[in-house]
Amino acid sequence: MLIEEAVAGIEVGCAILGERSGLVAGEVDRVALSHGFLRIHQESDPESGSGNSAFVVPADISAAARSLVQETAKAIYRALGCKGLARVDTFLTDDGTVVLNEVQTLPGLTSYSRYPRMMAAAGLPLAGVIDRLVALALDGTKR
Question: Model pTM?
Answer without folding.
Answer: 0.86
